[in-house]
Amino acid sequence: MEQVMMLPRPVPAPEERFAAVHAACHNTVFRYLARRIIPAHLAEDLTGEVFVIVWEKVLGGAQPETAYVVAIARNLLRGAYRATAKASKLRSAFAHERMRPRVENPQVARALETMKEPARELLLLTYWDSFTTEEIAVILDSSPGAVRVRLHRARKAFATALASDSALQFSTGEAARP
Q1: DSSP 129-168
Q2: What are phi and psi of 38, to 5 degrees?
Q3: What is the pLDDT of residues 122-177, one digit of tens each?
Q4: How far apart are CA 54 and CA 155, in angstroms?
Q5: Cα–Cα distance measured from residue 110 to residue 129, given in angstroms and rounded to the nearest whole number
Q6: How far is CA 112 from its chain centroid?
Q7: d(CA 76, CA 49)
């Protein structure tokens, strides 16, 4: 019987691995940042910074998944706002407002505004950014079970806030206006 010699597969070069991660994640990362930062060129700059870090990770042998790359973006965004806060309290307040996504429906916007930041972010990651529970767990450095519980509580808080806003509008007659 003749033996077939198996050659080991060549390991892709770091450039190829980075290109694959970049192609898989770039649009998601940019959209995540663009929804939270104004003007758009700042989101482009921050996206570039994210992929500098991803390049370093790839050189170290990693093959980061999308959720991990978004977690890097989230951390850079938080760091950028912390730096802004140190520069000026006025700029910090202004930047915090810019971090929030624009919501077209005024009732939804008011309901989100009344929620605590962690619950609001969890809802936005789920519904605005369409991440799965497992991906959110990576982004928030938590377990999927904890994310599911927190998401359940956030949904209840949102429903309560939306219902109280609707009741307030109904009692003041706002809802009847076109």
Answers
A1: S---HHHHHHHHTS-HHHHHHHHHHHHHHHHHHHHHHHHH
A2: -130, 140
A3: 999 999 889 999 999 999 989 999 999 999 999 999 999 988 877 656 555 554 44
A4: 33
A5: 19
A6: 16
A7: 8
Confidence of residue 79 (pLDDT cuts 50, 70, 90): confident
- Residue 142: phi and psi, rounded to 5, are -140, 180
Q: Are 107 and 161 in contact (CB under 8 A)?
A: no
Structural fold of domain 103-178: Arc Repressor Mutant, subunit A (1.10.10)
CA–CA distances in Å: residue 98 to residues 45, 47, 70: 16, 17, 19
Per-residue DSSP letter, 100: S
- Specify whether the CB–CB gap between 54 and 67 falls below 8 A: no
- Two tokens, residue 147: 């994310």
What pLDDT, on a 0 to 100 scale, did the predictor assign at position 177?
Answer: 41
CB-CB contact of 167 with 156 (8 Å): no
